[in-house]
Automatic annotation (TrEMBL):
Taxonomic lineage of the native organism: Bacteria, Bacillati, Bacillota, Clostridia, Eubacteriales
GO cellular component, one term: plasma membrane
Species of origin: Pelotomaculum schinkii
Subcellular location: Cell inner membrane; Cell membrane
Binding residues for Mg(2+): N21, S22, T24, G25
Name of this chain's protein: Ferrous iron transport protein B
Residues represented out of the complete protein: 10 to 288 of 684
Amino acid sequence: EKQIVVALAGNPNSGKTTIFNSLTGAHQHVGNWPGVTVEKKEGQLVSEGKVIRVVDLPGTYSLGAYSEDEAVARDYILFEKPDVVINIIDATNLERNLYLTTQLLEMGSNLVIALNMSDELKAKQIDINAARFSELLGVPAIRTVGTRGQGTKELVAQALQAAGNKNPRVVQINYGKEVETELAALEQDILSNRQLVENFAPRWLAVKVLEGDQGVLKSLAKYPGLERLLARRAEAVKRLEGLLGEDIESLLADKRYGFIGGLAKEVMTRRQTTEERLS
Ligand code: GDP
Ligand code: MG
Ligand code: K
């Protein structure tokens, strides 16, 4: 039987390596990603009779083109297509960590989320509603304490379940009427390009093209039909920037932060201290 590949993605210091160690124990191998000096850690475990290969991706805040780490993580997810991506989130910095999560969601990754550092969150008198979080994003979310191995069994169980899901739900951030109109047109173009459709989630690619993500555009250079897509993009950007008076990158970023802010607000509650309750 084919082994299942699970990649761990998350911000630096979210607890990725701690959870990686907890999952794989001594069965680890350290090397380098091809062509770059970024360290590559792999390990494996056996669960429910299945061999799971775990890959610890470089810690990143985003999957843009700004660093070698980001390019390694993004290209691995795009081109190696792990069966499941476990996104390790430092729940004490939820909003900052969710920026990466929104990108993983848009990429159409088969996601399982670890709300890690949940012990620290508790110490700060903050509750996070994992069930509601999971419901809003359409992906499993488990509270974990990496340093104590808490929640890791459940993570593996959810990852195994997700691995069998061939059509993961793709959450769509709504970028507003004007932007959505242009995205739909770009997506149509992408859908008519068989090679692009076979390799990428069309919606994700439409967003990246509109955004002008240099890393992604570079990865696409070999695909026929790219020039037409870029010409459409140039027209769309001109229209949107004229219409909305803001540059396209800021337009998209604002919507993402709006989505993240709304989500965080909905799932987090600060418990009242005894003093507050009595006053
Ligand atoms: P990475 O950069 O994502 O690989 O993060 P690490 O695994 O190196 O963890 C960063 C720091 O957070 C280390 O000091 C860990 O011991 C600590 N850590 C990891 N998970 C938890 C957790 O759930 N709770 C607490 N309190 N600390 C954690
Ligand atoms: Mg690490
Ligand atoms: K570390």
